[in-house]
Model the fold of this input.
Amino acid sequence: DERAPDVALQNRTNRICWKDFSLPYWFLDLEELFGVYNLEPGSNQKAIIKEHVTSLKTQYAELNDIKDVLISADSPLFFNIDDLITNLESARDSEKSAAGKKPYESIVLKFQSVRSDTRYSFLHNEIEEETAIGEYFKTILGLGAPEKHLNILDLSGLPAEVRAVCVGVISRLCFDFKYWDIDPEHLPLNLVLEEAHTYIPEESDAKFNICKERVERIAKEGRKYGIGLTVVTQRPSNVSTTVLSQ
Done:
């Protein structure tokens, strides 16, 4: 059958449409959390968010008997976003002065806004499953049964203001996966970034910083950990020179 090779390749391909794509918010580090939830907190608000997120993740670790691990706000452990909002509201209401309540107001409003926005459902649609990072890697890297050698993520339908951050988060997760892999040749990865000029541009814009930092790190350090990078664009002059120089 002349079509057999094509069929075999299709069986080894994992295609995730943007409608089915998920990126659980509890995998975000603190900087990524600020970017995705459009938070622009001052130093006091950063401390508040860090304290509450760390507390919830610590509680989850204790309930699930996760020991000998240093828990921080950046740890990829589950916490319930609704509990976070409730705790922030309680902390706000416990403050007696308007000045004391103020740091909590904008944080709560922005978390509530994204939580109720259907465009951001990809962040919250696995809350009931409390998906662990290992299970997520099986999905996006095709490590289930049967294994998928080519994994295509279509992010075109995500909100434009958060698409770049999502690319950055996925790139960082893949880098971390390989960084902690004892054998770099165990599962070699190559990230192919289509339309790269739209999320790792040369221009300096704060909304691209997270993505550029993550992708540039892979470009500079990825090879020694077994992760490669292919940048695809029709506008190479608009792409980060740091990435292109590698």
Summary: The mean pLDDT is 90. The CA atoms of residues 23 and 123 lie 5 Å apart. The radius of gyration is 20 Å.
